Amino acid sequence: MTDTTIAPADASARPAVREIGIIMNGVSGRMGYRQHLVRSILAIRDQGGIVLPDGTKVTVKPLLVGRSEAKLADLAAKHDIEDYTTDLDAALADPRWEIYADFLVTKARSAALRKAIAAGKTIYTEKPTAETAAEALELAKLAREAGVKTGVVHDKLYLPGLQKLKRLIDSGFFGRILSVRGEFGYWVFEGDWQPAQRPSWNYRAEDGGGIIVDMFPHWNYVMENLFGEVKSVYAQAAVHIADRWDENGEHYTATAEDAAYGIFELDGDIVAQINSSWTVRVNRDELVEFHVDGTHGSAVVGLFGAKIQHRNATPKPVWNPDLADDHDYDADWAEVPTNDVFQNGFRQQWEEFLTSYVEGTDYEFNLLSGARGVLLAEAGLESSREGRKVELPTLSLD
Prior knowledge:
Blueprint lengths: L16 E9 L4 H17 L3 E2 L5 E9 L3 H10 L4 E3 L2 H6 L3 E6 L3 H13 L3 E4 L7 H14 L3 E3 L7 H12 L5 E9 L25 H16 L3 E9 L4 E3 L5 E3 L5 E8 L3 E8 L10 E7 L2 E5 L4 E5 L23 E2 L9 H15 L7 H20 L3 E2 L7
Parallel strand pairs: 1-3, 1-5, 3-4, 5-6, 6-7, 8-13
Antiparallel strand pairs: 2-3, 8-14, 9-12, 9-18, 10-11, 12-13, 14-15, 15-16, 16-17
């Protein structure tokens, strides 16, 4: 072949740059806008895309979908986005858009996911994936039958603190893990004298609200991916504050729990206790903290920080209520160095999902994983309602 000879094109070769169209439904909401649109998809777009292992690049092009054309137009103009529509059916029928991403309120999600599956779109969705475990499992089965790739948001696993915790676990630091204690929450104002930080539907069961439905799916994937599969749950839900005021300043009575106290049995005889509350004033370093105890060491991790205490550095407290204890227990803990560069967790998972989509690899955080999270929430509500421990069955697509 001479210097001027051009080799024939390889028809199977991947293009150097591939643009993926993404339908983004529900971007006017808090999470859909802030975390998924601005900090994930637009961040990926503005950096020029993602470089894949083989050196090719993937870029993204969003299509904003919602009910209010005016809101969509404002968002599109603000962020230099060309495409938006109020017609979801038309968007799903358009082959330019390969992925359907769902950030709707829970009650609206299942119907939209069914449409996306029927249209053969790849799916990436917030959790919970449905209002019931049966429906969540049905969606997972429908997706498998349709040959549709799916992904469910597991953002807490990508928090810097939990990534440090994962590193500790993988290194064998803890020895045998004995227990996990989690504290999550903050004070959400009632809405009368200060505006509430969360939408009012969060406090109405009839609208899909409640902290168990919101947080137990998170705790499920955190526990099963870091410590072990959840075998049972005992939970106590509470409506601590019934009188609240909505976005228009109108009084309403909360019908969904604003706090939940859960005890979970995990594989390996690990016991986890996690409190979730929107009615707690924070007295901890971060809004979420997990205290993990093992035979060889312990750790306390939050959103970003992580500190450890090895068994060789463990003090020997003696209980004596008659004498003041002046020992500085906080000083017995050592900070875990960061050592890595952690980016926004939502963006990191988006990049991993897009890479898996293009490469055609299996993706473990799929609709079946999402169904397990819905199952735990459902079992938690059942436990609180009936005052008993509830065993969790193993979900399967077969």
